[in-house]
Amino acid sequence: MDNFDHVEPADITVRDLYVSVGGGWQGARRVTGTEVLRNVGLHVPSGKLLAIMGGSGSGKTTLLNAMAGRVTNVQTTGQILINNRPAKTYIATGRVAYVQQSDQLLPYLTVRETLRYAARLRLPNDMPRTQKYKLVEDVILELGLKECADTIVGDEWRKGISGGEKRRVSVGVQLLLNPSIIFMDEPTTGLDAFTSHSLIETLVSLCRKGRTICVSIHQPRSDIFDLFDSIVLLSRGDLVYSGARATVLEYFAKLGYDIPDQVNPADFLIDVTSVDNRDEKAEEEGKERVKTLVEAWTTGRTGEGIEMEILLPSVETVEEKTKERCVVLPNKQIGASFLGQTQILAGRTFRNLLQDRLTLWGSALEVLTLATAVGYVFYKLDETESGILGRKSMLYITSSVQNYLGLMFMIYKLSMEMKVFDRERLDKMYGVIPYLLGWLVANFFLYVVLACLFSIILYFMSGLRTDEMWHLGVFAGGNVLMQFVTIGWAYFCISWARDFATASLIGNSFFTFLSTSSGFFIQVDQIPIYLRWFKEISYITYGYRLLATNEFTNNEYTCPELGTNGQDPRCQGESILKSLGFKSNDYTTPIVALIVNYAILMFLTALVLRLKPHSGVRHASAIVRKNGDNKQRTLAVDEEMQRGEASVPRIDIRLDDVSLYISKRAYPPKETTTTVTPILQNITADFPSGQLSVILGASGAGKSTLLNLLMGRPLHTGPLTKTTQTGRILYKGVELDSSAQIASICSLVVQDDSHLLPALTARETLRYAALLRLPREMSVGEKIERAEKVLFELGLKDCADRVVGGEGVVKGLSGGEKRRLSIGIQMLTNPAVLVIDEPTSGLDAYTSHNLMTQLKEMASTGGRTIIVSIHQPRSDIVKLFDQILLLARGGRPIYSGPARSMIPYLASLNHVIPPLTNPADFALDLSSVDLRNAEAEERSRKRVDELVVRWTDGKQKVNKSDNSILTSMDFAGLQYRQRAPLGTSLGVLIRRSIVNMRRQVNLAAARIMQVVALGIIFTLYFARLSKNQPSVQARMGLLQQQGSLIFVGMLNCIAVFPQELNLMKFEYRDNVYSVASFFFSYLTNELPFEIASALIYSVFTIFVIGLQASLSNFLVFFYIVFCFINIGESIGIAFCAMVNSVGFSVQIMSTVISLQVMMSGFLSVKMPAFLAGINYAFLTRYVARITASQEFDGLEFYCSDADVRDGICLYRTGEDALRLLDFESANSDWAFNMTMVAVLTVLVRAIAYLVLWGRMKRI
């Protein structure tokens, strides 16, 4: 990393730091919080590398976040100083970088593109671009990213680089910020030993140029530990040591803790400062030991009474040293200029957009579908009175529905994209305004094209005026302007709330206000005076006004059915505009207003983003339990459990020449249309029962892919790719075709812990899992005891009553604690085969050793087959391995066989392990390609290729004896793990979901507040309807707006269902319960919200607004509203189950629902016969006729003298209104319509179930 410049030196000093969570004022009472850090003091001189170490949950991440100024929802006391000044002042300069545990990257940029854009944004403005790109290539080589440099990052829709590679890209982005201080939270998590060592060496080289680097780290290998300058050692929030790495072992020796020979110092330190809470005796001994260590450090004395040097310098010392080291650097601008940021962000966003095929094709499909459907509904409108009404309806739909769909999709899309913005904003990579301008420039062409395409199709299909073609330009221009104002509103909503549920509630409420004031549903001059000002800020009003002015100004219609040859005021454009409250020839005002609307919205967005940046880490306090279930005790395994464990069948697994290839078709097609990439190549290995088998390999070696193949799970690929698998996977000599059959004997712990429900505690998660997964023969008490036993065995007792936490909720469990919790879920059932992807990832060395020891015992005593992939095993863990499969990048085998034979085998190939070297580190170093320079790459690649060839061509194959092979009939006799019955699983799932929802107040509130907001808005606009002529239009508008309740159901589903579905997929793969159990539990839990929503909305509409009020009318309306919301939920379930991308689902669903609402009959009086036939399948058709009949039947309206004079006295009775809507038969068909509403509600929910069931069968 020789190309990185020197930076301004920066000392970090922390004095008497205390951090508490859960405290504050509750009413008039002061509540004391739980201290998670106590009396922490440390000093990091500039140019030094500090490692913060400790067990899981010791407070490493909290300390790192506190030093970096990234904690919220906590109380802190003490001082955090940089260069003897408050840290926040220095952090605000942008000279501080932070590597988070989670990787927030744009998914469709390649690794090289991601790093290049980061370099251009943050490296000095006067540095040539070629030099910046040279630095990028250095980082790529240094972090071992060369072979994936041109691969996209990827997401759940398109597979990209591996998890370990994403981790390295995140580190690389921060290195390119060229900061003075770098904070890194677990930078080596997910990295193999070779890459981890290379990364830390890179950090050391950066320190030598003046940078101060602080990392939290779980289990560094010994040669990594030797690279650290300083150590901070934490135990349960207390400081045990803070000072030089070189003296830490001497310090502990003086306290009576001597490091044994050939032991990794980091492992030793974490072991000494950790508490084993798996049994009471060990826990008490550990607590006493830690208490002694904390007191020794606090008093500055050893157990022998020898005075220790206090390693926290005085303020005077810091000032003196800071002055001594301070160098004057050239006054370079940090990062790109304002215009440079805008240009770079525009290019980056556009590049990502081009590869985001889902958004591109989804948006194009939505526009084409909606334009064609609306055009067909209003196809070639005639010049009759109904045709004029159709024109007004079509223009309103154009200005509202299309923009509403865009608003909901943009809010969801931005809720994803803003994660990257928030991370980069905290890193001071660019300003708010350049980001917004860059986004606008990158997306301008796309949204202009989409709006023009929509306009052209709709304009000619509907038959709008063609007397002068500039009217088409005005129509298209108006749609373009409204499209960008919609984007402005989406940004404004997401600037206030990053989660989709809250942001969509804000957007939905505002949009309803804006659309209701447009003049279509209620005449502008009839809007209550206290709301009339809303039309001045309503872009829907201005858009509708522009489109109506464009169509009706100086235009007359023949109205042949009136026999007036166009002389009737109802057929003259000026009169039509007057009835809408608009002026003739008024083009300038709406155009200017739309432009001003967009400018104001973006200004407000920039202001909010600037003044209200996204908060940092929020911490959760423990859940207080009232039933005493958190009593501290050790639980013994009862005899029945022991017998159950002993009866586990022994399943030997064999890989017989297994290969996996990905074939990718080029797009657009080229001469070579298909590219074949090997993922796994000719792997033959045995994983015997009763043994602990380990898959070793560098990042990208195919470890996770192989584990998924063992579980019978397909590799998720894009539409242009397919996978080809060859060879056999034998389970006790038999190939199993059914993934459900494999899941009944095998359990997989995936690398990602996102399936955990964020608002459940660790104890609740395990208990609910036990109730669902354990055999029905066990009592509830026995299942609870089993959950408690696993909780204690995995060392989760201290965090048992803390919520899991997660993105958008709070910070709950640490990464290591979540990892153990995921493993515990699978350990509950004592499976015959336990497959774990990276079990020690995120765990400290002490917990890792305990966990692997437990896995070893489970294998040897119970006859289980346990297979794990692992990156960086410590040396004493390697001793536990029975079998090892060593893979090189590309899934190429280097060794497979007994663990004890691996080192001798490598020695036979002249690769002799040096003394005091971890065998796993040695093997991983041999199997990795060093990409840091050309010479090292050539040498290491040749070595790896030779190792692969020697193993493949040699005689080192696994013995293929057939003594364990059974017939298919014999295998079928084995007892499979059964799913929990419907009666059992249904109750557990309902209770679990209720608890999770109850603690996520924002989600629960959003579900109810959607209808409350609609009810309040409609009440403000329509309250106490009169019986004059404008009230007829207002009633039609209000009844038409009931269709928006389907959107409420859909939005409620989008806010909750994907989270539940994610967990359901995880548990369904494990054969825990059926689709029916999940489906009916979700239905049960949503039912109270639907009933409450329908009740609230019906009260507003019938009794407050003033529709015809009676008990029967209220009950009918309640029934209709309930069915609307329910069917919206059903549509949400179906599309979320069908499509992995929630954003794409929102686009499709919104289009489908909008078409239903549009075709209900209030907006589309006359439709082609084909569409009229399709309309019989839509709920909105029947609801429109029921509500119209119920409201207009028996009503009489009056006309003023002005109405008679102007010829707009159209409605004397309610029957006149029904006749205009072509609803004359609504009264006679009332019973049929009511029945069809029930039938369609049940039918759509049944279709949703079938879609979900079919989707689950294919995962």
Describe the structure.
The chain is of the alpha/beta class. Among the domains are: 12-95 and 179-297, Rossmann fold, CATH 3.40.50.300; 653-952, P-loop containing nucleotide triphosphate hydrolases (Rossmann fold), CATH 3.40.50; 1000-1258. A six-stranded mixed sheet has the order 9-10-11-5-12-13, with helices on both faces. Strands 19-20-21-17-22-23 form a six-stranded mixed sheet, with helices on both faces. Strands 4-1-7-8 form a four-stranded antiparallel sheet. Helix 13 packs parallel to helix 15 (432-462), helix 18 (539-552) runs antiparallel to helix 19 (573-580) and helix 18 runs antiparallel to helix 20 (588-611). The longest helix has 42 residues, at 385-426. It is elongated. It starts with 11 loop residues before the first strand and ends with a helix. Residues 25-29, 301-332, 626-646 and 956-973 have low confidence and may be disordered.
Report the biggest beta sheet as strand number plus sense, adding barrel if it closes: 6 strands, mixed
Estimate the global geometry from the Cα principal axes.
elongated
How are the strands of the largest sheet arranged? 9-10-11-5-12-13
User: Could you name the CATH class of the domain at 653-952?
Assistant: Alpha Beta
The number of helical runs is 44
Tell me the name of the CATH homologous superfamily of the domain at 653-952: P-loop containing nucleotide triphosphate hydrolases
Any guess at the CATH architecture of the domain at 653-952?
3-Layer(aba) Sandwich
Q: Enter the CATH topology name of the domain at 653-952.
A: Rossmann fold
The percent range for helix content is 40-55%
Distance between the termini: 44 Å
Structural class by secondary-structure content: alpha/beta
Mean pLDDT: 82
Give me the Rg, rounded. 34 Å
Please report the total strand number as a whole number. 23
